[in-house]
Each structure stands twice: as C-alpha cells, then as structure tokens.
C-alpha cells in the first residue's frame, strides 16, 4: 500500500492528528506526531478540494474552508483510536502526576503507561488495515508526550536512565502511580556495645505483632544497628521506611571496632539533598553505634557491599573451664595457615543449612591473661567462625584451640578489630 493510500485508509474513520501522525511516526524526524498528522490531513484536504473523490470520513475535514468541494461534515469526530485522549485526557493525567509529585525533591523522571484495551485493540485493527511500516505504538507516544508536558510543568528532566521518579499512567484504571527511587547512603559503622543485633530481629512468637514474650515490641531486641542508623536517615530524608544492607555482620554479643561497610536505604524519600555531616552527628549521638564516611551512592553499591567478602581480624577473650596447660600453648601456633573445617555451628543451625565450611586462618597470636584466660587475636578468611575455632563446637569445627589445649571453653568475648579491604 502506498503511503497516500494508507493515509486515506486511516482517514476513513474519525481520527485525531496524533493517531494519524503516529502511523508515520518513523518518517521525518524533528516533528511531533500531531504535526505529521496535520500535514497529512492538510494534503488530503488539498486533494479533496482539487476535485478528487475520496472515500474518507468527511467530518475529519470539518475545520477546513474548502474553496471548491462541498463536504457534508456532520457526524462524529471523536478519534476512533485514542478516544481523544491526546487532546483531553492526557493533560488531566499530567496535572494529576505533577500534583502527586509535589513535595518530593527530584531532578529527573521517566513516564511509563498502560493504554486501555480499547485503545490497543483499535490500534491493532488499524495496523491490520494499513500494515506496520513506519508506525509508532500508542504507548510510546503517550510516554513521550506526557514527558514533554511534565518537563514544562515541573522544570525537571526526562531521563530514561535510573531517574528519581517514575510516573506510571494507568489508563485502564484511570490512575497515576508514582514510584520514588530510594535514597542510598553508604558508610561504615562501628558497634561500640554488645547485645544489639545488626538488623531488626522480629519476635518469632508473634511475628512482629507484639506479644507477652517481646513485651509488645514485636522484636527480640530493643534496638539494632539498622534502627540506630536508619531512623535518623529516614527522618532527615523524610522517608517512609528504611532498609539496611551490611557487608556481613558481627554476632549480637560482639562489638565491631573497625568501620564495617554498609548502605542505608531510605524508602520514598521526600528530600534527597540532606546534610550527611549532620546525619552522622545525629546517629553518633546514640553512643552505641558510630558511623563515618557517609556518602550518597546508587543501588549497585548495595549489591557490591553485600557481596564483598572481607577478611577480618578478631580479638577473642577466651575463658577455659580448667587451668591452661602452658606446655600445650605453643600448639596454637600450628593454626597459622591452617584450613579449618567447620560444620554449620550449633548456634546458627536453626536458620542456616547444615554444611561444611573450609576457611583459612591467616594469622593467630595469643597472650595468657589469667590462669584460665587467653586473649587470642586471629586474622581469618571471610566467613571463618571464630567462636567455633576457639571452642571446637563439640567436634563440629576442627582443628580448634580447645582441642589443642585439651581444655573446654567456658566463655568467649569477641571483638571485630579489623575489616580488611577486599583486594
Ligand atoms: Zn487519536
Ligand atoms: Zn512477640
């Protein structure tokens, strides 16, 4: 079908300039579909006025003042494809979108949409008549036209790549949905006190609803590194919620004296340009957690932070049940460079698969601090269970300090003292 025949075919039904122009959307750049449609309609109007008898829907030419031809232009002009969405519905949805986003700080956005089934069916019916050469689907025109208008209305940039805001025009439900990109802040944290978990620990008895066991808190521990860092961050960015992403975690009863990398994610933030120095001070006031090196980052940093495997150095204050046999102490040196086989420890077996882990001891030094007490400093490969390396975990970890000293471990107090950079 020649292009002219196609244009005339489209004009057999009431059609707006956008929908007419969209059938030539991939011809001639630098024009809007409305301009393409207008040009095509103008051309056909010339043909009609020059005396050509064309089988078209005459009301499509109601606005023309023809010199020669007489057209009976009574009849419907509502566009068969879009139902006049481009001239009527779109503007209203754009205004709703702009109203929805007011109050949010953002610099760029993108628009997505789902046209109604009717629009899509009508458009496909049209394609069946004229073919699909040069056409643009209605959805992409809606997205682009809404984008242009929203740029004007909000003064922000349309940007496909990782924008702050995604508008979704759901024409089926006549709804405008707003997706707000999370605000990501990376940093390092030190846990200065024992007895707090890294992440919120939901009460297993009530699943977070609050019960007698958890004193109505819905959680097993009053606070967590996550909450101590996340609450001030969510407050500063005026966000709805917050999520915590750490590079591994220390035991609840262990301190972390080096800065452990993390990313705090503020969900649905209204503010993005927050003062990180001020946030750092607000978090550090807790006295329990100290953060540093706060910086804005992107989602990819979350993935990297969580997957990085850091070697770590720990100090363990170990107390044994019996007096330490000094003759056996040098045996501990044999652990340097050893590969330790660790079956999933008893203490975490309820939430982790039962596996054998092989991890290296990179270095180990010790000092006797009492008849039954030893301070051991171990540098281990990422994932080495330190408490079990001390205690042997009833034979599940081997070799172990307890077996080498032929003594049972009574108590271990653990600190992470160095988180080594990933090489
Ligand atoms: Zn239309
Ligand atoms: Zn509970």
Describe the protein in words.
The protein folds into three domains: 103-180, THUMP fold (2-Layer Sandwich), CATH 3.30.2300; 183-307, 2-Layer Sandwich (Alpha-Beta Plaits); 312-419, Alpha-Beta Plaits (2-Layer Sandwich). 28% of the residues lie in helices and 26% in strands. It has eleven helices and 14 strands. The chain has helices at 3-10, 17-22, 33-49, 85-101, 117-130, 138-154, 225-236, 276-284, 299-307, 386-391, 401-405; strands at residues 108-114, 157-158, 165-170, 175-180, 183-191, 241-246, 255-267, 289-297, 312-320, 339-343, 356-370, 373-380, 397-398, 409-419. A hairpin with a 2-residue loop joins strand 11 and strand 12. Helix 4 packs across helix 6 (138-154). One zinc ion binds next to loops.
- Name of the CATH architecture of the largest domain: 2-Layer Sandwich
User: What is the CATH topology descriptor of the largest domain?
Assistant: Alpha-Beta Plaits
CATH class descriptor of the largest domain: Alpha Beta
- Low-confidence spans: none
């Amino acid at each position: 079908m020649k292009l002219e025949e196609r244009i005339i075919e489209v004009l057999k039904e009431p059609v707006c300039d956008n929908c007419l122009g969209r059938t030539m959307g991939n011809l001639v750049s630098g024009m809007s579909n409305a301009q393409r449609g207008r040009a095509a309609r103008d051309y056909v109007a010339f043909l009609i006025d020059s005396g050509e008898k064309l089988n078209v829907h005459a009301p499509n030419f109601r606005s023309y003042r023809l010199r020669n031809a007489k057209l009976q232009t009574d009849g419907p002009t509502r566009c068969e494809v879009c139902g006049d969405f481009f001239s009527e519905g779109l503007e209203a949805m754009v205004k709703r979108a702009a109203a929805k986003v007011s109050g949010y700080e953002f610099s760029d956005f993108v628009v997505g949409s789902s046209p109604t089934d009717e629009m899509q069916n009508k458009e496909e019916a049209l394609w069946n008549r004229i073919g699909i050469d040069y056409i643009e689907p209605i959805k992409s025109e809606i997205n682009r036209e809404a984008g242009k208008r929203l740029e004007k209305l909000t003064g922000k940039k349309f940007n496909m790549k990782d924008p702050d805001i995604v508008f979704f025009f759901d024409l089926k439900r006549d709804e405008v949905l707003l997706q707000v990109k999370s605000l990501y802040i990376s940093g390092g944290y030190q846990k200065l006190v024992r007895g707090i978990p890294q992440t919120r620990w939901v009460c297993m008895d009530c699943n977070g609803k609050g019960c007698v066991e958890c004193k109505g808190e819905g959680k097993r521990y009053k606070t967590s590194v996550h909450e101590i860092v996340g609450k001030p961050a969510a407050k500063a960015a005026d966000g709805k919620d917050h999520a915590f992403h750490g590079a591994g975690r220390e035991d609840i009863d262990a301190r972390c004296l080096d800065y452990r990398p993390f990313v705090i994610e503020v969900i649905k933030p209204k503010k993005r340009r927050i003062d990180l120095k001020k946030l750092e001070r607000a978090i550090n006031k807790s006295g329990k957690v100290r953060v540093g090196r706060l910086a804005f980052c992107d989602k990819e940093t979350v993935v990297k932070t969580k997957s990085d495997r850091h070697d770590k150095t720990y100090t363990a204050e170990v107390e044994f049940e019996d007096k330490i046999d000094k003759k056996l102490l040098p045996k501990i040196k044999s652990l340097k460079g050893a590969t330790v086989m660790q079956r999933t420890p008893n203490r975490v077996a309820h939430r982790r698969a039962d596996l054998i882990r092989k991890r290296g001891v990179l270095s180990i030094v010790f000092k006797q601090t009492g008849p039954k007490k030893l301070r051991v400093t171990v540098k281990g490969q990422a994932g080495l269970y330190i408490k079990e390396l001390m205690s042997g975990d009833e034979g599940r970890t081997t070799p172990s300090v307890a077996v080498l000293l032929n003594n049972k471990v009574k108590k271990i107090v653990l600190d992470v003292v160095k988180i080594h950079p990933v090489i």
